[in-house]
Design a protein that fits this description.
alpha+beta, six-stranded antiparallel β-sheet, four-stranded antiparallel β-sheet, elongated
Length: 176
């Protein structure tokens, strides 16, 4: 390897190490990158989630329960949630005490139908999906997550209510 090529290789490795260190530091202070269509793509700041101030439409990062995570593991990257998947970045659609009904037409919260909420019974490859059809009365600490942006989003239609809300998300630099 020539001296010039060796210098370029060292510079590339150094740049890669610096970028990795910056990414780890950003994550440690709460910066999250969303690359999915479920919420606007871009950077978010994660902060403590306060159940006392939770509201419909609030963006959060939450983990599905372990059994639910197993059911959708083929659709989510590996992560640190119980069940081995990444947390879901979604809007809160329903709060503790709310009544949620899921049928083939979609999701209704307290009788109001959510946009783009009709569950899918097969994925894009034709594999069967198992939406959580029926009535769900949310208990203390349970939230219903939804993405009205894309109808193929993995949200509470497929994982049910979530109780492991990791953080509130605030957009920093997003596409929309």
């Amino acid at each position: 390897m020539s001296g010039r090529l060796r210098t370029l290789a060292r510079a590339s490795l150094a740049l890669g190490a610096v970028l990795l260190a910056v990414a780890v530091a950003a994550y440690a202070v709460g910066v999250r990158f969303n690359y999915t269509e479920s919420i606007a793509r871009g950077l978010y700041l994660a902060s403590d989630f306060d159940p006392a101030t939770a509201r419909r439409g609030q963006l959060v990062e939450a983990c599905p329960g372990p059994e639910a995570a197993e059911a959708v593991a083929d659709y989510l990257p590996n992560g640190d949630c119980p069940g081995g998947v990444i947390p879901l970045g979604k809007e809160i659609a329903a709060l503790p005490g709310d009544r949620v009904v899921v049928d083939s037409l979609g999701v209704a919260v307290e009788g109001v139908r959510l946009p783009n909420s009709a569950p899918l019974f097969r994925d894009r490859s034709g594999r069967p999906l198992s939406p959580r059809l029926g009535e769900h009365a949310l208990g203390v600490g349970e939230y219903w997550l939804h993405s009205g942006r894309v109808r193929t989003s993995i949200d509470s239609r497929y994982v049910g209510p979530v109780s492991d809300v990791r953080s509130a998300l605030r957009p920093l630099l997003v596409e929309d």
